[in-house]
What we know:
Elements: H1 9-33, H2 39-53, H3 56-67, H4 69-77, H5 79-85, E1 96-100, E2 105-110, H6 119-122, H7 127-130, H8 132-140, H9 142-148, E3 158-163, E4 169-173, H10 185-189, H11 194-198
Parallel strand pairs: 1-4, 2-3
Amino acid sequence: xxxxxxxxxxxxxxxxxxxxxxxxxxxxxxxxxxxxxxxxxxxxxxxxxxxxxxxxxxxxxxxxxxxxxxxxxxxxxxxxxxxxxxxxxxxxxxxxxxxxxxxxxxxxxxxxxxxxxxxxxxxxxxxxxxxxxxxxxxxxxxxxxxxxxxxxxxxxxxxxxxxxxxxxxxxxxxxxxxxxxxxxxxxxxxxxxxxxxxxxxxxxxxxxxxx
Length: 211
Ligand code: FE
């Protein structure tokens, strides 16, 4: 710990990932050396969640909830089961909770401890989600963080911050944009951004609609 980190908060943030990366790398080498882990298997897992899963799965979940009130009810009651109905389950998605944005409540998700994130519906977390700045500031000044992401939550609305852990992972059900009546689930899914499901963005307005 240097005394400087109290004055310049960028310092301690940059130290964390390098140390963590080093530890992960050491652990991986050890496991490979002992024959406990196949490095190709690790690469395959990372590639799968980076390129084959991604946030499109979550977008389909949200679109189904917008289009089907019964599904939405199931999603808000037992998210893990409702998400599995669409075929998305497994690693880092075993205990899901979905929180609904309304005009009165805006939800956002963080993992204050590390980077817990629902892989089956969102893929791997973006770098900013893992940053010390996001993890601490989301709790201390969520409205300021949202503002930086371009989201202004009205004064009279409540901001709720959910801390994902290894036990429970949260997904935000964003508000359905106006002007989307009659759109198909596929068209609706195209409006659902990754950030809107973390709660630091809103679903996109349909093409041609007034912003
Ligand atoms: Fe975590």
